[in-house]
Predict the structure.
Amino acid sequence: MSVTAPVEREHGLELLRQMLRVRRFEEKCVELYSATKIRGFMHLYIGEEAVAVGAMQALTPEDAIVATYREHGHALVRGVSAGSIMAEMYGKVEGCARGRGGSMHLFDAATRFYGGNAIVGGGLPVAVGLALADKLQGRRRVTACFFGDGAVAEGEFHECMNLAALWSLPVLFLCENNRYAMGTAIERYESETDLALKAASYEMTAWSADGMDVLAVEEAARRAAAEVRDGDRPCFLELRTYRFRAHSMYDPDLYRAKEEIERFKEHDPIPALSATLRAAGLLDDADVEQLEESISREIEDAIAFAEAGTLEPVDELERFVYFEGAAP
Amino acid sequence: MSVAPAKTITYREAMREAIREAMLADERVFLMGEDVGAYGGCFGVSKGLLDEFGPERIRDTPLSESAFVGAGIGAAMGGMRPIVEVMTVNFCLLALDQIMNNAATITHMSGGQFAIPLVIRMATGAGRQVAAQHSHSLEGWLAHIPGLKLLAPATIADARGMLAPALADPNPVLIFEHGSLYNLESELPADAGAVDIERAAIRRPGSDVTLIAYGGTVPVALAAADELAAAGVEAEVLDLRVLRPLDDATIIASVARTHRAVVIDEGWRSGSLAAEVSARIMEQAFYELDAPVARVCSAEVPMPYPHHLEQAALPQPATVVGEVRSMVGAAGDE
């Protein structure tokens, strides 16, 4: 399986590097979870990396991102440091949210990363509001809002599609359709499984793309982001993807056939891009070795950073319930 | 010293003046909610503002409480100063995910990175025979939530003066406007401005008992105090004003003077704000008390439609007077 679009070597390697970073980072997270270094709920993005990596190519540093509880990859690709993400999962003060949020609630003001929302559909209204602020202040920025297929069944999804379209707000809705709302297959919870069709009913440009093909995601996201930025209106993109791991570390994954998972693994976005690059003579074994080595170093450094981090003193427990200082 | 001439103004007009002043003072301020524009606000608060400020800043919304309350949160995080109007506290339940899971938590979950300078106004309370889906007082539920601030203006001065400091606050502030107060009328100095949003206020001093009320029960407490005065009992009326965080110091100081307290709350008794206030008095002023703290709350029924049953369900001055009389009697007829 390979992807099709032509690509420059440097850019192709960067896409591969980002997907590999996310994959290797999360593989390490699994080990650290088993070692009880990371606790709580943890949701892995393994298999879906092409979506975040492809979509982020269309965004500028001024744009905003609202993500879900399955957001390690989005934060990493956006530029939140691996060390501060790992420290967050360790519950350390050096974490990107001072350890207050954990795996599901990564936040970073510097990269305009607005979480880490663990209520399905709960991030959409916030994204609509961020876009409203941009519109009212005359800023040409995009708010990229990631959410899963499960969110489409929530009332907040429909309220937000309507409001964003009605008010022509610059929101890029990115639906990561991995076919399952936790353990319930989409055919079992949606009367209409063509999600772009639902969005289109709100008078919004909407279409679907192959979420296992990073180049296809990038192409679609660039087109959609341009429509949002220049057209000053929302756009909806459904990215058809699949998660290879269970919903969370608690999930025994009993609701889908092993054969189904294996079938989708044949479309793994990382080998797919590697094959394309190799076929075009843009990637060789030495490149891969170099990528793996630098990623491995980055992750080891991140773990060392988290290990060396500090726990917040208990007497600071009640800080940040209210904002400290004046609002910016 | 010259004093600006006082003018007679309603609670509704005071609220409108406050919004207008905030809009004129800061371009980042805008109002959104159901029927705030063309209709002029369900309770007439924003009448005329659409003509003055236009549809960009006076935004009529679809009936999508979760979306537009959440949009207020996002807009606040994006640098605006939104005022979101939710028609009634019963309707805010449709936006509770946004209020609880986002507005109240994001500052903390993000390790203090994000402020949410958002104001949410809503009508509350009974008394207009609008039955069990438009009449409840759910302030106590919302006051349960850390990360929110709750205000209950019960006077014209507070209706006029609480909005500006609420907008200046970097946290989500909920303002509860009791439906029975909108037509309240009194004199207000023309230059009346911001008031504090930290402290409770003594609305009537007295030495025998403290009647603790907020919002729509402040007039109930004042009426009870009038009746008690005629019988020779001097009741102090304390208006909580701020429902979260509660101003313990003012409450405890008053109870320490009067040694008796009745909490009057239009919420249901079980798990109410009245229960919280009562517990705090017990915790902090137990040995000052000459009698157990009493509570006058709404009857534990969904609000009925017929006038006589609605009135029977609500805290009434006569009930308050009865509680005080039995309390004073229990203390041994001073």
